[in-house]
Amino acid sequence: MEEKLVKTERRLRIKGSQGKTLRVVRELYLRDDVPCQSDRCLADCENNIGMHGTIGRLSNESTHYIIPDCQVARDYLEILETPDIKGIVFTQTAVHSVQHEGSKRLYTRLQNLIKDGRKRSVIFHNEFQRYAYCERLPGENLVHWQSRSTYKACEWYYDHLAGQIPMVMLTHNEEAIQLYSDKKVNVFVMTVKDYLAGFWEQLEGIMDLYESLTTALENKSKDRDYSGYLPLDVLEAGIKSGRYIQGILEVNRHNASTEAFVRRSGRTKKVDSVEDIFIHGMVSRNRSIHGDKVVVEILPQSQWKGRSLAICPDESEDKSSTDDKESDSVIPTGIIVGILQRNWRDYVATFSPDEESNKNVNKGGKVLVIPYDYRIPKIRISTRQIDKLKDQRVLVRLDSWEMDSQYPNGHFVRSLGMLGNLETEVATLLVENSIQALPFTDNQIKELPSDTSDNPWTMTDEEISRRHDLRRSHLVFSIDPKGCEDVDDTLSIRELENGNMELGVHIADVTYFIESGSLTDIEARSRSTTVYLSDRRYDMIPPILSSNLCSLISGVDRYAMSVIWEMTKDYEVKKVWYGRTVIQSKYKLFYEIAQRINEGANDDEIIENIPELQGLDQIELDIRLGELRWAVNKLMSVARILKCRRASGGGLELDSVEVRVEMEESDVENLTPKDHLEVHETIAECMIFANHWVAKKIVEHFPNQALLRNHPSPRQDQFDMLIKCAASKGFNIDTTSNKSLAESLNRCVDVNDPTVNKLLRQLAVYAMSTAQYFSTGSIAHDQFFHYGLALDLYTHFTSPIRRYADIIVHRQLLAAIGVDNSDNLPSNKILDELADHINIKHKAAQNAQRDSQELFQSLYFKDKKPDDEQCIVDAVIFQLRVNGFLVFMPRYGIKGPVYLRNKEGQVVFIGKDGKPEWTSGTLVRDDKSITVNTLHNSHKYSLFNHITVQISLQSSRAHSASLRLELLDNKPLKDDKSTLNGNQNTDRSDIVKEVQSTMIEGSEKELPSHDLGPNFAALKREFGQTDDSKSLYHIFETFKKISLQPL
């Protein structure tokens, strides 16, 4: 090895702290065995780098390799990030330039590009390669040396690979182009523009992106982005001392110009009882944007403010003039004094209408565009395509935000399509949630087996012999929603000869088909989850696996990963077995028919809904019907016991609304809340049971690098809304533990109104912390627990088709049981980073699903007239504000605001004819109700009152359309057909009773009453507070407010 090293020296001139220039000489050792990292290598380079040996390799399928110079790597990295452009070699010189001359965010993006195995791009350490190293000549300027080093690397690659593949050097240095372009055949030197025009002219939008980046560079100010903020060393010292607090800025989308919060990432000695710091107004936000990692200085307590208690429309107009009387109690308030990391992403924006566009365009061709996300301020971009793009949604990216500018600067990237088009709106919500939905590449598909009529996929005898074959011994079946194609879980249950019970959960063996480190694995890791929208889904893995070879459909042999428990007659686990199996699902049931089987459906109904039972002779049919009835009933019985035990330990039974969008071709026919059946809980309980036992197994073998899922205890202040709402009905909520909370919710039952318990459980969901994936070596063991499920250990194992976390857990389980080698498992550090990535993608998928439901809700009401019976519904009040209240509409499972006071200050009043009218008046609010007072009369609205509202669509050019709710009547809707799923209430109440029977029921004691004496009533009448309706003070106050109303 020593013979390969060549010692040289690098002479540097460094400016010292006092401004003096110092000359420094550093030793440099050159070697000739620096790997090229190309699949075309003929020189036996040691190219097996990375955790799996294939990540970061230059593919032999590329038609050419690209080597950008330092300036291109800094200024046009966004072009190089385009998924279609692959095979990029970043020299060590260029990487150093990005790191030291660019920004931290730019350097992070470059690192992420290299880590993305789909890009097949690498870093070449040219400054250590003996034959690629370029020593800087005396007097040579930096740019010239950087260009010479880049071209030298191009020459070295071309010669090293024996001329197998052309090399392209990208530069904007005209001198370098003239000097090197004709120097060597098949080593091309060109500008980015010429390269894109010659190689990628067919790539849609790429030239527009180039022009937009070039324009942004030309207009970029010489001032640094972070001028006006405190120096980094001051910020770090302040954070360490506790003077400053760091955290992530989260803007309130319903009051975006006024309210934002910094969720602190570390505790300080000050204000320990509150996690979030309130940031009031755009000035205090100091040019930071939602998602930025910022540093906050807490203001003196005399300057603290409270968040608004009014319902705020989703508008970006300034609301800083909100009356203090309409604010909550003050909370710690601060100002942002520095930004540690910009977390800018792609933003969807829209140009202002024609009548406003001319006002917004200045002489330099700059125009303000309005972001789709209310939390993002208007963005100033430069474009020559205003007339062409004015009616389209466009994708823009931020470049900077100058200290003296009201708005940030950005550039146009591409158009998403015309406003109002469904595909445009779907593309918008994907971009807004940072979800890429690109088709799977040919190379990824080629890795996987095929299954066609000409070349059907079959199991191998060798693989079957290594597995436990359950095809003849077990009745395996699945229970899923109608139309489900990606069936990743099945169940089995049977009685053993010794009288014990055997329960089995069998999961698709995805890891058999997806090798760790393969292109398909890299893509699945990048996506991390399947994204389900109302009318479509975007798979995590290719359809050949998700809908075919890994889907456990009935009547087909499939590979599985199984967890099988032997239980005593009391359903105590005697032993558990983990391993790979071969199964054949006998039935693909959907939820409704499984529920009907348990309820005693007749044979004809069962046969009609289960194709596998059709066409059988009577004898076999009777046998199979009997087996299926027993299996379903027994499974549900076992699940009830498992649920009862978990609930008795504090497991929460919360509620969330899922709305089913019923489509007829491309039209939305109806919106209905999904029915909740007991069989849903049966399947969920079996999956929870499997996930818990798998978590125990992998933690036992990998205590410091197992992937688990924890659910932290919620903050007590998050329960305030729940406690107040329950108190309005006379219920007491104990939130000291998950068990006490579960018991409290079970007691909150109004026999006359089942919506009360449902809404209280939904409010409990709002109070919960977010469940997260984590590596066991990253947090303390006492933080492993799952609060909601009341389990000490929990993970995700049961859905590997749609969750990458489950794929990781499968690999860890296989290593734990000795089937696979544990050497390829990620370390704690890598796993922790991967867990963070999965958490981000999981949240994005959930948000996209929510946004999709809201989009299709808007489409449903788009063409409906206000007096349509489908637009007039019953609603339940569940939260009070100073200018209205929030309601829940059981018919559609939708929540929304109802205003009692408009922008003009008028209040809505229901007249004697039963019709609403806007008039002068006042609103009086307390913890349980809000009262509308007018000259005519007064109306009182209490929590959980039923009212009648009218739904209409409120369209928006720049943002998503929203539903507008207007009060029609202060009484429930007559002959309301909307119900709350009677099955759900019956089943849940039965289960609650069963759970409660296992607990110690405490007696409810009345509060003690104090004897105030026989004369108390008379004294109160004489000296007590006068009733509002008879008080002259309140009458004069009403007159005063009415006189201030506009005529």
From TrEMBL:
It is found in: Cytoplasm. Its cofactor is Mg(2+). The keyword Hydrolase applies. InterPro entries: Dis3_CSD2, NA-bd_OB-fold, RNase_II/R, RNase_II/R_CS, RNR_Ribonuclease, Rrp44_CSD1. It comes from the Eukaryota. One of its GO terms (molecular function) is exoribonuclease II activity. SUPFAM superfamilies: Nucleic acid-binding proteins (SSF50249). It catalyses: Exonucleolytic cleavage in the 3'- to 5'-direction to yield nucleoside 5'-phosphates. GO terms for biological process: gene expression; mRNA catabolic process; rRNA catabolic process. Signal peptide: none annotated. Coiled coil: none annotated. Residues 467-819 form the RNB domain. Pfam families: OB_Dis3 (PF17849), RNB (PF00773), Rrp44_CSD1 (PF17216). It is an enzyme of class 3 (hydrolase). Its main location: cytoplasm. Keywords: Cytoplasm, Exonuclease, Exosome, Hydrolase, Magnesium, Nuclease, RNA-binding. Its EC number is 3.1.13.1. GO terms for cellular component: cytoplasmic exosome (RNase complex). Belongs to the RNR ribonuclease family. This is DIS3-like exonuclease 1. The lineage of its organism: Eukaryota, Metazoa, Spiralia, Lophotrochozoa, Mollusca.
